[in-house]
Amino acid sequence: AKQAIDDALKAKTAEIDARTDLTDEEKAAAKADAKAKADAAKSAIDKATKNAEVDQSKATGITAVTSVNPEAVAKTEAKQAIDEALKSKTDEIDSRTDLTDEEKAAAKAEVKDKADAAKSAIDKATKNAEVDQSKATGITAVTSVNPEAVAKTEAKQSIDEALKAKTSEIDSRTDLTEEEKIGAKAEAKTKADAAKTAIDNATTNAEVEQAKVTGTREVNNVNPDAVAKSEAKKSIDEVLKAKTAEIDGRTDLTDEEKAAAKADAKAKADAAKAAIDKATTNATVDQAKSTGIEEVNSVNPIAQIRPAVGASAGVHVNSANLTSKEKPQEKQAIDQVLKTDEAKAKVKDSVASTISQLENENQQVATNQRVVARELPNTGTTESITAIVAATASAILGFGLIARRRKEDEEDKLENQ
Predict the structure, then answer these.
(1) What predicted TM-score, i.e. pTM, was given to this entire model?
(2) 314 pLDDT more than 80
């Protein structure tokens, strides 16, 4: 009977030693438990007085020994701690909106690998201390996984770069006012923000890429129209066109006087448009436009050459001493003299000579802003030039009208005789 008990104890001891889920401490405790039960059985056998009592004690002892089945507490609890850390980290990764599904999957796979490695180390541990160390190391490894959000971060960085470039482009445009620039930059930022929101809401790498491409295109497409300056310069052009037509329609001016006046008007218009281009705000654009319109409209050339030529011959077109029949005749006479090639050449030479003289007197003429025939700073305006030309023209052309009138007077006398 006691031999049977020893056999049962030996088998149980071997079984316990073979278990890898138990630590040495757990095995020792289990084997001690089995031995205690075996010893108790053998003590009962020794006390038995009959064969039946011996058999009963043997059976009871064998049952007690074989029923020893220690629970693997240390390793089970350690691996449970690893699983809890794995679940917590997995939930944390899944809740991150800055990661794409692909980045989450990769991070969770990394976490699981670390958890599996920790549990494998726990299984291989033989002592409680080793189990505790493997558990602690595993938990640290699992919780330290902190995946970097690459796809969305890089996509939003691309949007920011596109916005920065667009902002610089807008700021460098001289055709826009500050208000137009502010509006355009706000529009670009709104599109950039919308793109970054779309990137944040994306769940896959493909969706992130699409949101980035779309957002970059939207930001790049911001191309504000230069409304204020364009409309202001258009107004200047319209006023110039009207003034030019007005000058061309005047019959009291010679071609040279018209050319000088139109050049004056154009120079003023160009100066106004230059001021508009340099303006930075809507208010300064409006001011430059108003000033320019006023300047162009102020061009009102005084007819000098025709009256001067007529006066040299004693003719005053439209004067009270001429009959209605004589007025057109005298005007026609002046026109005929002014139309001769010799007269044209002399007037042209006189204008050129006068302008050259005035240029020599004033070396500060702004060649890109003023036309010599219009205005020479500090020396006079169109009227002063025209007055000098008129005086010269009078001397050149006066003899023509005088000779013509004398010839007509002689013809009238002959007819009367």
Answers:
(1) 0.65
(2) no
